[in-house]
Design brief:
By secondary structure, the chain is mainly beta. It contains nine helices and 50 strands.
Length: 917
């Protein structure tokens, strides 16, 4: 599978090994649950255990540090985001009262919607290799060509900074690559890398790569910030001053942040920009590398973020326009720069609240094995109708690109530290799209070249205002010749698109089905064939369902039946030159033909023409149900009323098939200036309180609304017991309390888990949302009951059952799991694996009696459950009678902590067995 000590790919590699490995892990120390526990006390699947009020899972191999969140799910709902242990394999999640042991069924570990703890059904489905698509024509202007300037490079390192919520200071280090001899003030491009391992030891094995911060003695920092030199050099040759900044200090601590570090990354970006503003005002104070570079024009800033760095620069753009709450901001002060646009490479967007008024280009790697659901599509879809719609938001789908190879320090053969291909290729069932060597899979160099070209395209459009490169980003069927072999596809919203037919809004549909993008109800869902991939448009959020995220699902067995979409009010398409539709069809299909027709308010019809839609190359491991942008010229009869268009019709002309319409717009060429509207900003806080010993107190979820004006947001209240949510759309304005969620906390004197009531918030129209999740946490303030092992039958004849009773000092409000481990005896002869019942041995350790060995060497580590409301539970050792004459034998048991170490202050117990002969 991999070389010794090489971490496994984040999702694919863990999943394909888990099925076999978890059975073995059940016999490993710390992973065996008491299979013979009382019938009412549930046992957990192999690999899982409970320690006190924490749920733990241990992976069969180290899970590489990546950008997708590792999440625990149960019964189809999100339990929470666990904390990783230093071993890279163990993950721990504190449980609240809503997740007691008896409710922990259908447990799953997911990252970006993909299983880590088991191979997903159909993951190895055999699919034919997709046909290569014909190359589109080249755009006349190619932004990938180097500019006229030679470049210079150097680094600066400033004192580390403290960021709110982070214990250790974060480094302030940057790699500058700038043009030589460029006159005047030059625009700035700042790069922020994503979440990757932070430290490494040369020549080490499995422990050679860590996520520690600061790095331990003998370890070096992984220089992830040095991985974008190719991109920086291209931009610098074209006249940009570029800087790539290091964020290892955030990567090593962001597991503690509720927003996964988005606010901290924004603060770090703005800290650097603030220093550049200082240096622009007083050049003599700048580091040598900055003084040797041209002067900078901070009114023209491009932010480029990779993975979690993408979410970080999105938040930095938001915070530059709409300041965050002072208590959470690590870079206070007014922005002395203007963010002209962002480029987001394989980004996360856990909050799903993009900045609608700052132009963006989101690169979606078709073979992403880390952020595999391609949730970055939300940076496009999530901006629709939120603000004035003038900013262009582009999705750039790169067929055959993985997540890591956009950064050379994450690329094997180029990186200084151990690196890996994040897309795992199962040698027994090779992926037809993403396996190395397949026609559609890019090499590391090909991928990085394509990335550099499209970053330069965004810079040229968003910063330099050169509309000639817009076709490379806005869904026009052209390519950049300098991107070489890479098949790059784009679609977009915003810019000069006019009124739109949006399934998310108030619409009626006939001849097709209005389907929900995120729902647990298969009948309401959009009906994708998961064996052919998933859809970036339907990336899951924090709720089990979402209101207002929809598509139009069209299915036909013969041509000719129109699917009609009718908004609540007629639309005006006057001034548009075409209708642009974003439509996707099943992966690996070709030639789906659709007629496009408009109907005005007087039922006059205008047949605009026919479009052909091809599916992307895809497999079960790809997110390839992705919309292609197709356009038809808007040519109608003079009598047709373009100011009052009532309906859009799509009529299939292929023999049979399926298609999904994401939206349709009036379109015309051009890129208008994007101006940020004055909007209110919503941030949800977290209030932690002690539960108390008696009575009921009412608290409220803290929500702050700042900024200007009024707008609409939708908030969801998540039921902590069921995971289901209720939602409401409200109008918010600064100082208002439109989001008013009371939480009752009942005091008691029994030990229990913390109780957490959360809400999540999304912008709907005329608002931005910063910290999207928060709530009230009622902290358990009662001590955990102490437990002792009380002998019930600690002297038996062989064939008998040794029995101890785990006895708690008092009852608890939750089940408590008590680990008990067999350890070597201190005197006399120890029971062997052949002295106990074979089934008992297998149940408690997963091992067999042969070869015969001391029982303590069989890794017997049982987890005995004392149920809520009770004080006792039994632990036994079942012996067997044999014909061998033996001396008195014994067994020794101790209570342990979660790591298998003997608990201080507890007393070991000894059981003796006498010969029956």
């Amino acid at each position: 599978m991999c070389e010794e000590g090489t971490p496994l790919s984040r999702s694919r590699r863990i999943g394909v090994t888990a099925v076999a490995a978890l059975a073995v892990l059940a016999g490993s120390p710390g992973l065996a649950a008491a299979q013979d526990a009382p019938a009412t006390a549930n046992t957990l699947p192999p690999g899982w255990r409970i320690s006190g009020h924490d749920l733990l899972w241990r992976a069969p191999q180290p899970v590489p540090m990546g950008d997708a969140r590792v999440e625990f799910h149960a019964n189809g709902r999100l339990l929470g985001v666990p904390r990783p242990a230093a071993d890279g394999r163990t993950f721990k999640l504190p449980l609240d009262d809503a997740a007691r042991a008896e409710q922990l069924t259908r447990l799953q570990v997911q990252a970006s919607g993909r299983r880590l703890d088991a191979e997903e059904p159909g993951a190895g489905a055999s699919l034919a290799a997709p046909q290569a698509a014909p190359a589109p024509p080249a755009n006349p202007v190619d932004p990938g060509k180097p500019g006229p300037y030679r470049t210079t490079r150097g680094e600066y390192s400033l004192p580390s900074v403290k960021l709110p919520g982070f214990k250790a200071p974060v480094e302030m280090r940057g790699l500058v690559i700038a043009p030589k001899g460029a006159a005047g003030k030059r625009p700035v491009a700042l790069f922020l890398h994503g979440r990757h391992s932070t430290c490494f030891k040369t020549g080490g094995g499995e422990e050679s790569v860590t996520g520690d911060w600061p790095c331990a003695k003998g370890f070096k920092e992984i220089p992830s910030y040095q991985g974008y030199v190719k991109d920086q050099q291209l931009l610098a040759s074209q006249g940009y001053v570029t800087v790539s900044i290091s964020a290892n200090g955030i990567n090593g601590q962001d597991w503690e942040a509720e927003d996964a570090g988005a606010q901290a990354r924004s603060s770090l970006v703005r800290r650097h920009l603030a220093r550049w503003a200082d240096w622009a005002a007083k050049p003599s104070s700048a580091p040598p590398v900055v003084r040797s570079a041209p002067k900078t024009d901070l009114s023209k800033v491009l932010l480029v973020g990779h993975s979690r760095g993408g979410e970080g620069v999105n938040r930095a753009a938001m915070d530059s326009l709409y300041p965050p709450p002072a208590a959470e901001d690590g870079a206070p002060g007014k922005a002395r720069w203007h963010v002209s646009g962002t480029v987001l490479i394989g980004p996360t967007i856990f909050g799903q609240n993009p900045v609608a008024d700052v132009p963006s280009a989101t690169i979606l790697p078709g073979c992403d094995g880390d952020v595999s659901d391609l949730q970055g599509e939300v940076y496009v879809d999530g901006t629709r109708a939120v603000s004035n719609g003038k900013a262009l938001h582009s999705a750039v789908y790169v067929v055959g690109a993985n997540h890591n190879f956009f950064n050379t320090e994450w690329t094997p053969g180029k990186a200084q530290a151990p690196a890996w291909d994040d897309f795992y290729d199962d040698p027994d069932q090779r992926d037809p799209v993403c396996a190395p060597g397949k026609a559609t899979r890019l090499t590391a160099d090909q991928q990085h070249q394509a990335g550099a070209v499209y970053i330069a395209a965004a810079a040229r459009l968003f910063v330099a205002g050169d509309d000639r490169v817009r076709p490379l980003l806005d869904g026009t069927n052209v390519r950049a010749a300098s991107a070489g072999k890479a098949q790059v596809l784009t679609h977009a919203v915003g810019a000069n698109r006019g009124a739109g037919f949006l399934p998310d809004g108030s619409v009626s549909v006939s001849g097709a089905r209005l389907c929900d993008a995120v729902t647990p109800d298969a009948k309401k869902g959009c009906g994708l064939d998961r064996a052919k991939g998933s859809s970036p448009h339907f990336a899951q959020w924090d709720t089990e369902r979402e209101s207002g995220r929809r598509a139009v699902a069209v299915s036909w067995t013969k041509p000719g039946t129109a699917a009609r979409v009718t908004p609540a009010k007629p639309l005006s398409l006057a001034g548009s030159s075409a209708v642009a539709l974003r439509v996707f069809v099943p992966p690996n299909t070709r030639g789906t033909k659709l007629d496009v027709t408009l109907v005005d308010s007087k039922n006059r019809r205008a047949k605009l023409g026919q479009v052909t839609v091809d599916g992307l190359p895809g497999s079960s491991a790809t997110a390839s149900y992705w919309a292609r942008e197709v356009r038809v010229p808007l040519k109608t009869a003079k009598t047709f009323d373009l100011k009052r268009v009532k309906s859009l019709e799509i009529t299939p002309r292929s023999a049979s098939g399926k298609a999904w319409l994401m939206d349709a717009w009036g379109w015309r060429a051009g890129t208008p200036a994007a101006r940020a509207a004055a909007l209110p900003r919503v941030d949800v806080g977290r209030l932690s309180v002690l539960e108390g010993d008696s009575g009921t107190r009412t608290y409220r979820v803290p929500v702050k609304v700042s900024g200007k004006g009024s707008g609409q947001v939708r908030y969801y209240v998540i039921d902590p017991k069921t995971g289901k949510s209720t939602d409401k759309v409200v109008t918010v304005r600064p100082g208002s309390n439109a989001i008013d969620v009371p939480v009752k906390v009942k005091g008691d004197t029994e030990f229990g888990n913390d109780q957490q009531q959360d809400i999540v918030v999304k912008a709907v129209h005329g608002a931005v949302v910063g910290k999207y999740r928060g709530g009230v946490t009622a902290k358990n303030d009662d001590p955990e009951p102490k437990a002792t092992l009380v002998p019930v039958a600690d002297k038996v004849t062989e064939g008998g059952t040794l029995l101890w009773r785990v006895t708690q000092s008092q009852t608890a409000a939750v089940d408590i799991w008590h680990p008990i481990r067999l350890v070597p005896v201190t005197e006399g002869t120890e029971l062997s694996t052949k002295d106990v019942d074979p089934q008992w041995l297998e149940d408690y350790s997963g091992q067999k009696p042969d070869p015969e060995r001391a029982l303590s060497k069989a890794d017997v580590w049982a987890w005995v459950i004392v149920e809520a409301g009770k004080t006792t539970a039994d632990f036994d050792v079942r012996t067997v009678k044999d014909s061998v004459t033996e001396p008195v034998e014994s067994v020794r048991a101790v209570q342990t902590d979660m790591d298998g170490k003997e608990l201080p202050g507890t007393t070991p117990v000894v059981g003796t067995v006498t010969d029956a002969s």
